[in-house]
Design a protein that fits this description.
alpha/beta; 245 residues; 10 helices; binds flavin mononucleotide; 8 strands; TIM Barrel; 8-stranded parallel barrel
Length: 245
């Protein structure tokens, strides 16, 4: 029986121990299908899809996926609570297993539209989006962020962001363990130049043991996954999963 023909009556529960990062122009449905052939259980994420693309674009092209991809999360890019709620409903209709909000992308295009990593400076906007999505759907609503942006990168800033968003019901955070500079670095440089600070993510889990915390950034080997899992709930792998699946 091919993987493609598997019709799952009951979808497997989300196992967050290992996940594959959302990556624009990488984790499209073809890549995800391929990854699922390698791993039956790893949690997959779509590329970031903007709310505008879903509400006003070729929705079917952006959202359609194969049943074998489950468990698969839709990552949204956007900031307007009403749009995010509508898109979360659409995600549920399409059968996604989770809706994730991108609060980590530093590209100029995304900043101009006032979403992505720059939203770390506006935790109330993220919290309002989370609240609206949670009211709209029963799916898990999660947030992927950095540990800080620009000069707003202290431990207190980070905690304020997490607490503000958690207050509206988000209990699952995926943290790319480096800050982003919103000006002066390209998105690629922002994935390489700011140093990784795994300790900050471990410390977050210690402070909030009740939250599910997934760490992301620079993981390239299986032994690193087990090392991180001694401190946090999940490990998200990006480039290594694409370059060396
Ligand atoms: C080509 C490329 C595209 C990316 N696109 C997204 C995206 O759409 N949404 C997102 O949250 N992060 C995106 N990222 C960041 C990754 O999800 C991840 O946070 C980052 O690559 C660090 O993890 P890694 O060191 O395991 O690659 C992208 C990264 C790459 C290399």
């Amino acid at each position: 029986m091919s993987v493609n023909s598997l019709k799952l009556d009951k979808l497997p529960a989300l196992d967050r121990r290992v996940s594959i990062a959302p990556m624009m122009d990488r984790t499209d449905r073809h890549d995800r299908y391929f990854l699922r052939l390698i791993s039956p259980s790893v949690l997959l994420y779509t590329e970031m899809i903007t709310t505008g693309a879903i509400l006003r674009g070729d929705r079917e092209r952006f959202l359609k996926f194969d049943a074998s991809e489950h468990p698969v999360a839709l990552q949204l890019g956007g900031a307007d609570a009403g749009d995010l709620a509508q898109c979360a409903e659409i995600a549920a209709e399409y059968g996604y297993d989770e809706v994730n909000l991108n609060v980590g992308c530093p590209s100029d295009r995304v900043q101009n539209a006032r979403f992505g990593a720059c939203l770390m400076k506006e935790p109330e906007v993220v919290a309002a989006g989370v609240k609206a999505m949670r009211q709209a759907v029963d799916l898990p609503v999660t947030v992927k962020s950095r540990i800080g942006v620009d000069d707003q990168d202290s431990w207190d800033d980070f905690v304020r962001f997490i607490e503000t968003v958690a207050a509206k019901g988000c209990d699952t955070f995926i943290i790319h363990a480096r800050k982003a500079w919103l000006h002066g670095l390209s998105p690629k440089e922002n994935r390489e130049i700011p140093p990784l600070s795994y300790d900050k993510v471990y410390r977050l889990k210690q402070r909030y043991p009740e939250f599910s915390i997934t760490i992301n950034g620079g993981v390239t080997a299986c032994n690193e996954v087990s090392q991180h899992l001694a401190h946090v709930d999940g490990v998200m792998i990006g480039r290594a999963a694409y370059e060396n699946p």
